[in-house]
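seq:
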Amino acid sequence: MLRNYFLMGYRKLMRNKKFSSINIAGLAIGIATCLIIMLFVHHELSYDRFNEKADRIVRVAFKGSFNNTVINEANVMSPVAMSMKTDFPEVEQSTRLKDFGKPSMVVGEKTFRDEKFAFVDSNFLSVFTISLVKGDAHSALMQPNTIIISAAAAEKYFGNQDPIGKTIYWKDQKTVYTVT
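struct:
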């Protein structure tokens, strides 16, 4: 019985080749489009989901207009974080993050060019969930000129040595940072 259905369907397709090919192509394009849209939506909704408090973290953006020019900026001025916390009681904590690009770092006699570098507030690790391999998350950024680095960066800079307490010199800013 099932063989008979397939045989009748095949004969119908062969009898109307143009109509069948248009329908099959339309169905294939429709399915492919739905899959691409589903992948895009899944990707967009997956950002920062590793944070335990992801549903309570928001990003503040600057939108405004000046002389009939619309301004949309991802960065806001530094005082916004503190004023948000004082002016809005529903804001539990505020922290700032400033991407700084690719600096030249010096460890001993070797110079390295990092891929990512960012300045953050001391409470950054209490807002975002980042597990530290070594060191204490509560006190890691409390002192000025302290830095946390990834395990890959620690291996690149210091090899198999313990990076805690070691110093990294930022060549561009002429500043020494202690790894915490």
